[in-house]
């Protein structure tokens, strides 16, 4: 069966759990870009796109670990990697906004 990107990132049980962990809910009944926009509005933080990209990247990496290394994905591992990556990426954020982002990252629990 061919893997579908939408299912991988938004519909499968694992990815749904990842998004829930960071407070992002997808309304799959909307068209793709409307779904993204609605999630961004509901998220209510200026750094939605940063969080979205980091989260999706690590969902992808978990999928690759399963396929190429046989390692089963876990929410704990995904969350740990998400937090680490978010902290690393914080250097790209202007100093006036960085603390807001890091405080949010610190609120994400393993």
Summary keywords:
0% strand; 71% helix; Reverse transcriptase zinc-binding domain-containing protein; 110 residues; globular; mainly alpha
Strand and helix order: HHHHHH
User: What is the C-alpha radius of gyration, as a whole number of Å?
Assistant: 14 Å
What structural class do the secondary elements suggest?
Answer: mainly alpha
Distance between the termini: 32 Å
Per DSSP, what share of the residues sits in E-state strands of 2 or more residues? under 5%
Portion of residues in helices? over 70%
Oligomer: single chain
Q: State the shape.
A: globular
> What is the residue-averaged pLDDT?
96
Give the topology.
Elements: H1 5-11, H2 13-21, H3 32-43, H4 48-69, H5 75-89, H6 95-107
Helix pairs in contact: 1-2, 4-5
Write structural notes for this entry.
The protein is mainly α and 110 residues long. The protein is 71% helix and 0% strand. It is built from six helices and no strands. It has helices at residues 5-11, 13-21, 32-43, 48-69, 75-89, 95-107. Helix 1 packs across helix 2 (13-21) and helix 4 (48-69) crosses helix 5 (75-89). It is globular, with a radius of gyration of 14 Å.
Task: Write a brief structural summary.
The chain is mostly helical and 110 residues long. The protein has 6 helices and no strands.
